[in-house]
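[Discussion] Sanity-checking designs against the backbone

I'm trying to build intuition for which residues belong where. Below is a structure token string of 163 positions. I'd appreciate it if someone posts a full sequence so I can compare it with mine line by line.
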């Protein structure tokens, strides 16, 4: 019998000394929270849940890409509140051992990476990323029609590539 099946069977097995008046429920009889393992740190306000990574992130330790939608067992706890909305924190461990913490940001209705990983920067200027911007239509047309301008451009590019 698998451990899950055993756990389920346990839930429905009423021991001979079980007294509904005294024990009220099987969970109380066994002295266990109904969520069992997932609730073992409940006294610290921590519940283990399945957490789905809300955006693409990169692990700080191993550098691996963790895709949006990837699932982890995470410790969920409330760490404060913004007006009447709880701020929730989710801590999970990447397979490399890195602790990754993500929390909700009720003010901006989004998630923030607190530690252990970084979010890809989705906006950047071409200069920052050191890529050559694609020329616009006008620029291309001028290069095509004006041989001198084209020559200047080519020299500039070769100078730039020499660094
Ligand atoms: Zn990692």
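Best answer:
Here's mine. Compare freely.
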């Amino acid at each position: 019998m698998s451990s899950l099946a055993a756990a389920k069977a346990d839930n429905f097995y009423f021991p001979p000394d079980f007294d509904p008046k005294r024990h009220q429920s099987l969970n109380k009889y066994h002295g266990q929270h109904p969520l069992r393992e997932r609730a073992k740190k409940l006294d610290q306000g921590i519940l283990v849940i399945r957490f789905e990574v809300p955006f693409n992130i990169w692990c700080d330790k191993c550098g691996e890409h963790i895709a949006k939608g990837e699932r982890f067992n995470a410790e969920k706890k409330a760490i404060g509140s913004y007006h009447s909305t709880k701020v929730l924190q989710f801590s999970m461990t990447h397979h490399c051992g890195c602790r990754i913490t993500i929390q909700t940001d009720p003010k901006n209705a989004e998630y923030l990476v607190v530690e252990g990983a970084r979010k890809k920067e989705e906006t950047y200027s071409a200069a920052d990323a050191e890529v050559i911007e694609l020329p616009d239509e006008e620029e291309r047309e001028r290069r095509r029609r004006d041989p001198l301008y084209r020559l200047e451009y080519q020299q500039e590019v070769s100078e730039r590539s020499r660094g």
